[in-house]
Amino acid sequence: MQGYTLAPHTFHSFKNNCVALVAQENRGWAIVTEQEYKIIKDYFSINRNSNQSKEVEITRATLDKLYNLGLVQKNGYYPDHCYKKTTPYPESLLIKMTGECNFKCAYCYDFSPQREKNHISAERIIATIDQIISKTKKLNITFHGGEPLLRFTIIKEVVNYCTRNFTDKKIRYALQTNGSLFNKEIVEFLEMHNFSVGISLDGIWSETDKLRTPKNVEFKSASQKFIYLLDKYNDFVRQHCGVLAVLCRSSIKRLPEYVLWLQEKGISGFSTTVLDPTGRAADIKEEEISAEDIIELYKTWIKLIKAGEIHSIKISNLLSYIDNLCSFDPPNFCQKGPCGASGEFLVLDADGSFRSCDCVIHDYFILGDAKTDLDDVIHSDRRKKIIKRYEQLSKYSECSKCTWMQLCGGTCVAKAIGHSSDINYIYPIECELTKFLYPMLLNEYSENPDSILFRYHQKNSKIKEIA
After folding, report:
1. Number of structural domains in the chain
2. Greatest C-alpha distance within the chain
3. Is the same domain home to 269 and 372?
4. Which CB contacts under 8 angstroms, 24+ apart, belong to 393-397?
5. Count of beta carbons in the 10 Å neighbourhood of residue 10
6. pLDDT digits 0-9 by tens, 179-238
7. DSSP label of 188
8. Mean pLDDT across the stretch 357-380?
9. Is the pLDDT of residue 160 over 60?
10. What sign results for the dihedral spanned by CA atoms 430, 434, 435, 440?
11. 92: part of which helix (H) or strand (E)?
12. CA 312 from centroid of its chain's CA atoms
């Protein structure tokens, strides 16, 4: 049929005579039988070579399906939903309220004596929000630190300002905290404004407490305080709070047990980040973990999900990988490949400067100092460096031969910086996990699209089914 061409793609074969076709120019994929793939290849091969007399039948419905999945072009174009979407103004703003913290975590990526002195003003925050919200209909605001609740008065001032002035806008609030400063006033305020709260805690044992040390003597350990919160503010913690754990040698072995404990306590969300050897963590290299450690953790999570033991708690990292297969525009901007942070996400640092990412503190992400106007940041090509890195990896590295490049984006640039001085470094933990998870997930889907694993995803994700 005229106008249709087979798009550049790679393929991955499974044991059940199925093949995953994975687009190289977008995030599309499809699973077909080996015979169906042969028919598709023969059809387009013959259409390119009019001298061949052999005819291969393929229906218009099949072509339209492959077109919709980004594996066939029509008159040289993919459907609109296959193209990466960018927004001129960010729809997610992370505000570093302060560099100060009442904990002294041994793996804090953000710590430096200079950053500890920084505190953002309400005026700088409000001016930034004013400019963004004048151009957008919605905004997700995350208050971060240091420990942001040390600046609760400023948080309250900013939220009350938004409540008074932006009644026609959709604003969502989030907070990342160690949870040690909750009191009746703070909890009631967070509940009133429907905050989504992440509490940093790696486990409930002495070996997981040892790297997350409180500076004061109000409580002995981070886990002791969390258990107190579960008792004192049980409904708030269950309804509004998830838990973030740092993966390191001291925490990873008992993490599945920890997730089951959190689920039993009614915690609805759990996420992880891998320790980066930056900030204070540069001095505890013995806590670093390997790709093999991470893969074993994910295998255990998947095993527990299939056994029905993990069911109601959302393991957001795993769900994000499945989300990545379900949409050309996944909700987690870190999964958007090459890097969603450079487009729809913005950091307002505690010193008043702008950054494109907060995962590591590095000059690579600086977009402007404390005197920079937001419009100067917006009108600069803040994606340029990210795109350049992506193109370099796509052409001149092992990524150029990888089936999963469009889905992973060449691994996270922040993680690359955190583990190497080379911007084009391929972060091995993410790379190996990607090469394990995507084939496994697609193989699972080819065998049973309604498996327990995918039903867990449908129950716990905003994206309800794989395309």
Report:
1. 3
2. 84
3. yes
4. 393/424, 393/426, 397/424, 397/426
5. 16
6. 999 999 999 999 999 999 999 999 999 999 999 999 876 788 999 999 999 999 999 999
7. H
8. 88
9. yes
10. positive
11. strand 92-96
12. 20
Q: Is residue 221 part of a domain?
A: yes
> Are residues 127 and 41 both part of a single domain?
no
Domain carrying residue 15: 4-82
Question: 3-class SS at 9?
Answer: strand
pTM: 0.93
Structure token pair of residue 285: 């290299």
Q: Which of 50, 82, 114 finishes a domain?
A: 82
Q: Tell whether 265 and 138 lie within a shared domain.
A: yes
Query: Which two tokens mark 202?
Result: 């790696």
In this prediction, residue 329 carries a pLDDT of: 83
Q: Distance (Å, rounded) from C-alpha 157 to C-alpha 107?
A: 31
Specify the pairing of strand 241-247 against strand 196-200.
parallel
Residues 6+ positions from 201 with CB-CB distance below 8 Å: 178, 179, 208, 212, 222, 223, 226, 243, 244, 245
The CA distance from 279 to 276, in Å, is: 8
C-alpha dist (Å) from residue 17 to 29, 35, 69, 72: 17, 8, 21, 22
In this predicted model, which residue has the larger pLDDT, 59 or 53? Answer: 59
Name the pLDDT band for 464 (thresholds 50, 70, 90). Answer: low
pLDDT in tens, 85-132: 777 788 999 999 999 999 999 999 988 889 999 999 999 999 999 999
Radius of gyration of the chain (CA): 24
| CATH code of residue 204 | 3.20.20.70
**What is the spatial distance between Cα 464 and Cα 467, in angstroms, rounded to a whole number?**
9
The DSSP code sequence of 280-335 is GGGG-GGG---HHHHHHHHHHHHHHHHTTSS-SSEEHHHHHHHHHHH-SS-S-GGG
In a domain, 322, yes or no: no
- Residue 225: helix, strand or coil by DSSP? helix
- Is the residue at 125 inside a domain? yes
